[in-house]
Amino acid sequence: MENQNQLPNGKNAMEEELIRGRDMANQILEVLAHDKDEGSTNSKSVLPFVEDLVRKVLCSFTNTLLLLNSNNDVSYEVVASIAPKHVSSSTSSPKLESSDETCKSLMNTKTRRRGYKRKSIAPAWEKDSSILIEDGYVWRKYGQKMTLNAKYLRSYYRCSHKNDQGCQAMKQVQRIQDNPPLYRTTYYGHHTCRSPLNPEIILEPISPSASSTLLSFNNSFQRQQESPFPSSLLASTKQEPVEVIQDYHSAQNQLSSPEDLLLYDYDFFFDYSKRVASLSSTETVEFENVYEQFGF
DNA sequence: CTTATTTGACCCAA
DNA sequence: TTGGGTCAAATAAG
């Protein structure tokens, strides 16, 4: 609660508002879920659409909160790289790093594991909540732990798009008391993923003035400097945007080599301006359809 | 089948 | 050495 660094003027108020907004969106989600359980008789429902919208709203709130709460310093350096060349293990990389000779002999099952990575980034922000908050993103649990001074388990989550898009976002959820239940959610890193559900959600901060039209290279790199999220991936891929996988649907399954991931990230960024331009119209159309269904 | 979670072992920063 | 973060095999869920 108050243990966070004090934000400069106005930011606290902004944060309050965002949290309120997000909480309300969560409530809508709950209502929707409840409604779904009631086994509604009407066949064609707008629920999926509304639910999707709410999730998008949640993503926006979450992203904004992350941006607001991240100290705009160097704390976002991407990991440590104890073993820089090992991106991940096993199935995820089609070509095993053939240059690496050490792992080869370790094919033996129970020997030591490769490419162990440990987070070294500072938490973006943390928040206590009486409920398990839905933040609009899809998370995958990868561990849980009983910690020393806590009565409850701490759960570790990473973004579901870590493997297919290289998204580095993580969070921890720990119950810190019962009755009333209280959970502390701590976010690490930021989302670089583009979910099929939320193609327009991207955390890379976009200045309002630049949002309507093409982003120039200058803008991008300038923004990168003042951004709390200096994407090292971006920085390392200043080459050609290339025509990398335009539609992520087809790209979901083909797993990518590290280089592809970099291009991916770059592509997201690049693609964004176009999306902003076209987004409003398509959304409007969808809205109209919905209203028609309901005879509005 | 594929994909997500559980769980104990493993790893490493302090 | 220890505690907390992560891996990955086993298991569960869809």
Automatic annotation (TrEMBL):
GO cellular component: nucleus
Domain WRKY, first and last residues per copy: 128-196
GO biological process: regulation of DNA-templated transcription
PROSITE patterns: WRKY
Family annotation (Gene3D superfamilies): WRKY domain (2.20.25.80)
Compartments where found: Nucleus
Leader peptide range in chain numbering: none
Pfam families xref list: WRKY
UniProt GO MF annotations: DNA-binding transcription factor activity; transcription cis-regulatory region binding
Protein keywords: DNA-binding, Nucleus, Transcription, Transcription regulation
This protein's name: WRKY domain-containing protein
Protein encoded by which gene: LOC102663281
